[in-house]
Amino acid sequence: MTNSELLSSAWAQEWMKSCAAAAREHREELIELDRAIGDSDHGENVDRGFRAVVDKVAAEISSDDSTVADVLKLTAKTLMSTVGGASGPLLGTAFLRAAKAAGTGDIDASTTAALIEAALEGIMTRGKATEGEKTMVDAWAPAARAARDAADAAQSPAEVLRAASDAAAAGADATIPMVATKGRASYLGERSAGHKDPGAASSALFLAAAADAADTTGKGA
Ligand code: ADP
Ligand code: MG
């Protein structure tokens, strides 16, 4: 692998901008999904959270000597303090674990997969949900598997992220028929079936943002 294929702090910064743009663009759709099986705040929560992340990163991260881990750690801290609801601590823990997995330098394909695996582990530890309970785990778990498969097949970090993003989108769609057994939607029991889980939907958007950011920064932008 050539050095230009490694993902750097510039990628992580672009990822956060892309998350913020996605949260803004899909805000109403996420609100509607959460209205159906929750309390309608998910779109607001992630929009507010990632807007704050972009502000913090702009203020506190120096472009020259920062690492992927620095950006992800600041993201975690900011999401935990600005996103209300269940998703704040869950996404915060995901980014904190991902920061640890990123190590101290630029990241290769295998470390990119490790970052997604660590995020999943963090979410599962914090929320105690497993796959099939109609939560964001149903987006991150297939994403982590697809990422590892792509890395094992010697694909580039950008390809690893695209594989993860495609799997997360399919995983989010697969939550539609599920009955929720964790989180607020579980209060609805069988009536939660027939709607996409908002947290799985937003997580798929955030993984697509990661892949988009790799495409952009990988071309020397
Ligand atoms: P709240 O449910 O407190 O209003 P949000 O609306 O921001 O918080 O987030 C809801 C999303 O959080 C759900 O759609 C689901 O994906 C995720 N979620 C809730 N509880 C859990 C859990 N225990 N484990 C994993 N994800 C969860
Ligand atoms: Mg909610």
TrEMBL record:
Keyword hit for Kinase: yes
Q: Which UniProt keywords apply?
A: Kinase, Transferase
What are its GO cellular component terms?
cytosol
**What lineage, starting at the top, does this entry show?**
Bacteria, Bacillati, Actinomycetota, Actinomycetes, Mycobacteriales
Molecular function via GO: glycerone kinase activity
* Name of the protein this chain belongs to: Dihydroxyacetone kinase subunit L
Ranges of residues in domain DhaL = 10-212
Keyword Kinase tagged: yes
Q: Superkingdom, according to UniProt?
A: Bacteria
One example of a Gene Ontology biological process annotation: glycerol catabolic process
PROSITE patterns xrefs: DHAL
